[in-house]
Amino acid sequence: MKSIVYSLAAGIGLFAASTPARAQHGGFINREGGPYFRAAAGVSLTEEGQVTQFTPGGSGGAIDFDPGFNANIAVGFAFNQYFGLELEFGGSGGKIHSVKGLSIQDTFFYQAPFLANVVLQYPVPRTIMVPYLGAGAGGSVTAFDTDVFSNGTATLYGSDSDFVFAWQFFAGVRFDLNEHMSLGGGYKYFATGDSSFSYPSYPFPGPDAHLGIEGTRSHMILFVFNMKF
Known about the structure:
Blueprint: H1 2-22, E1 34-46, E2 49-55, E3 62-65, E4 68-78, E5 83-99, E6 103-121, E7 129-150, E8 155-176, E9 181-192, E10 195-199, E11 209-213, E12 217-228
Antiparallel strand pairs: 1-4, 1-12, 2-3, 2-11, 3-5, 4-5, 5-6, 6-7, 7-8, 8-9, 9-12, 10-11
């Protein structure tokens, strides 16, 4: 996976370095660019995870996630028709189907990331097609919510949240409807750091329970709308 990220970063650097030479009207920032808004929504498929800590009691095991949702918006500035920077905000999550070795009921895991993205695109000449790719990094609020999450010694009930590092890369294609609006679809790979949650003892007084969840890795298929101002 690191080799993919490094290759993507290298591609972004080469593309950005060559953009000024290709930009029209003699400048890096030109009338082909400008501010824009993007909205996307779709399905999120999270890879199998792991409970890294669950004390007091046993540590837990593999986490199986049900398919979930993702929705995000971004505001950005395209410096020309090839290169842009944006800030993205969104939310994703879904139900935890099962955790090996644990008893669970109505347990959900949510994420609310905010990221700074670099976006590269290439309007295909004499077509309405605009392929794009990009990468971003930032942070994410992670939230764990459960009715029952038990290892036999400790039982969690309610919700708690954490803040973790997050990063992503994405690619797709848009189709211009007119000079300002486009529709398309894309793929996003989204990853976070490990999350840690703390719960008071339930149902009897005792030491607080601590839950650790391995950083998630999610694959998202999205429907995308863009508006250029």
